[in-house]
UniProtKB/TrEMBL annotation:
Pfam families associated with the record: CtaG_Cox11
PANTHER family: CYTOCHROME C OXIDASE ASSEMBLY PROTEIN COX11, MITOCHONDRIAL-RELATED, CYTOCHROME C OXIDASE ASSEMBLY PROTEIN COX11-RELATED
MF GO annotations: copper ion binding
Compartments, record wording: Mitochondrion inner membrane
Function: Exerts its effect at some terminal stage of cytochrome c oxidase synthesis, probably by being involved in the insertion of the copper B into subunit I.
Oligomeric form and interacting partners: Interacts with CNNM4/ACDP4. Interacts with RANBP2.
Primary location group: mitochondrion
This protein's name: Cytochrome c oxidase assembly protein COX11, mitochondrial
Amino acid sequence: VVPGETALAFYKAKNPTDKPIIGISTYNVIPFEAGQYFNKIQCFCFEEQRLNPHEEVDMPVFFYIDPEFVEDPKMAKVDLITLSYTFFEAKEGQKLPLPGYQ
């Protein structure tokens, strides 16, 4: 991917179980310092996704790397940025605690 140009990638998700699963994906960018230059235009992350039993889907991510990436001396030796996703099953009625609150 050339910084400043948009790109489209697809992630494959498969539900290997016999029951439907509803979940949410979060993403991570490695190296961490490059994350500030990674910009998602459209993404499936942070939205509930339903996968039916044994369903396999391609989920698109439309993104670009900020052109300022090439100007940052801390990024001079970075020639590979990895985007990964973790899929968490959503639990109905589960309330997640807010950090710092009891």
